[in-house]
Amino acid sequence: MRSSRSFYRLKVFFVLPALLLYGIFTLYPFLSSLLYSFTNWDGLQSPDYVGLANYQALFHDKAIVQAAKNTLYVLAVMVLIGNPLSLILALLLNLPLRSRGLLRTLFFLPALMSLMVISISWGFILQYDGLLNAILTLFGFENGIQDWLGTMDYALPAVILILLWQGTGFGAVIYLAGLQSVPRELQESAQIDGATGLQRIYHITIPLIMPFITINTFLGIAGSLKLFDVPFVLTNGGPGTATTTLGLLIYKYAFVHESYGYATAAGMLFMVLIAVVTFLQLSITRRREVEM
Amino acid sequence: MRKIRLSLGIAELVMLLAACLFLVPFLNVLLASFKPSSEVFDALHFPSSWEFAHYGAILGEGRFAQSLFNTVVITSLSLGLVVLFTSMAGYAIGRSGRGLFQIVFFILISGMIIPLQSTIIPIFKLATAISLINTRTLMILLYTAGAIPFATIIYTGFVKGIPSEMEEAAAMEGCGKTRTFFTIIFPLLLPATGTVIVTNVFTIWNDFFGPLIYLYSPGKQTLMTLIYQFKQERTTDWGPIFALSVIATIPLILLFFFVQDKFLKGLTAGAVKG
């Protein structure tokens, strides 16, 4: 019945709309980018074929190395600090509190604020005559005053702080979904056997919500690697190259320096990097998932 | 028992306080939108008098209604198309073994790793060639295409969790397969639909770069490009910008508050069977 020819035809018909739309607006543009990466196109005049020259030049590009360092720094913080923070927040939001729904919405709020609004409100806090410095002055810490987004040492940490603020609630909501799928009986029987709260989290909860750890880690890694918009709007990659990520650098190569062929070549290598890292992560965390 | 209830009460209080601290960046914008223009940039103090003038300025602004309409139309039609197309595709893939449909699945989710920057110019050229540039239709198609990868993962995982006896029973009754999908299976996918909507609605509603690049006529602007324009026009008078930012965020807060439970259920199924 399932393998009947008419059902097969129906299934083909069912995947066509998504496949068509995706093919036209994602795959086709992507593949034409791939072709441009072998040319010296500037986005305006007709492109000339230059073979692997763009790719060779990339390996001697110091700006790429700096941007890669910034990107990996963001990635490390988001995965090693942001992800556990989300889990802790989810465990707290999963307590039988009266205002659960409200609390969830409040902590999720940064995830649904637009980049425009975030850049306005955080600019307000971090600029030199902003809220943070006003509070520092109020409590007599004048020495701690900084132009938070305008100093080499603090700009990237400030951007990461904003990303953590934005992402923690979102990650927590995904973990909450996982926590609600953990059967209550397991927790209760472990409690009767005398397991403490922390032991229960470590031996029961964490193994059972592994699929959600996979999802969150994946979204965290893919999001950090592709990061572009927050530094673009808040600092435009500055001061100097302090907050220039790989995604932002590629954007600048294409639209500021108008070396489109070179930018797409960088984009291709960048994509290979994303693919390798996320594939490694998925194969590692998938293996640790347990069957219910 | 009483001890537990007391410690929960304290936990609740601590969480609410933490949430308030967490929300300072949003409260900033909210408070500033009610301040007289002279106090808007003084973040440390509450408004000396609560004013609605900035909201009045927004509602009296001719471009506001148009951009709200554009945003609502683009967002809802994009979500509608994503839900329709990816639920159909997810059903076909979830009801197939290895082979052709597995390949289709990998093609559809490959977009998770494609960096957006590398497709901007080809899309611009393509849209110009098929005369879709500067149309709301283009935005709808782009958002739909962009949402396909993750939504396909969610729906495929969810379909695998639904026993196929349903369809077999419907076939016995003489119900056609297409009708079976739309009348029996699709309603069962509701939690997954909730997840797909929640994971995309904010991205689409809040998107700023898309309309900035692909829509350049004044009548086509969205709420986000309107905020951006305000910033360009009013370098000193920021009150209305804050008011507009609040207005643009409130529908999303309400939406999340009311669908969060469904959203959580959909994620559970999708992640476990995905």
Automatic annotation (TrEMBL), chain A:
Domain ABC transmembrane type-1: residue ranges: 68-281
Keyword Amino-acid biosynthesis annotated: no
Q: Which domain of life does the protein's organism represent?
A: Bacteria
Q: Which family does the UniProt entry place this protein in? A: Belongs to the binding-protein-dependent transport system permease family.
The main location is membrane
In its keyword annotation, does this UniProt entry include Membrane? yes
Q: How does it sit in the membrane?
A: Multi-pass membrane protein
Task: Mark the transmembrane ranges.
Answer: 12-31, 72-93, 105-125, 154-179, 200-222, 260-282
Species per Swiss-Prot/TrEMBL record: Cohnella hashimotonis
> What Pfam families would the database entry show?
BPD_transp_1
Recorded protein name is: Sugar ABC transporter permease
Q: Spell out the subcellular localization from the entry.
A: Cell membrane
Query: What UniProt keywords apply to this chain's record, in alphabetical order?
Result: Cell membrane, Membrane, Transmembrane, Transmembrane helix, Transport
From TrEMBL, chain B:
Q: Which UniProt keywords apply?
A: Cell membrane, Membrane, Transmembrane, Transmembrane helix, Transport
Identify the Pfam families for this entry: BPD_transp_1
Bilayer topology term = Multi-pass membrane protein
Q: Which residues constitute the signal peptide according to the record?
A: none
Give a yes or no for keyword S-adenosyl-L-methionine in this entry.
no
Residue ranges crossing the lipid bilayer per the database entry = 68-93, 100-120, 140-159, 180-205, 238-259
Protein localization: Cell membrane
Transport is among the record's keywords: yes
UniProt record similarity statement: Belongs to the binding-protein-dependent transport system permease family.
The name this protein carries in UniProt is Carbohydrate ABC transporter permease
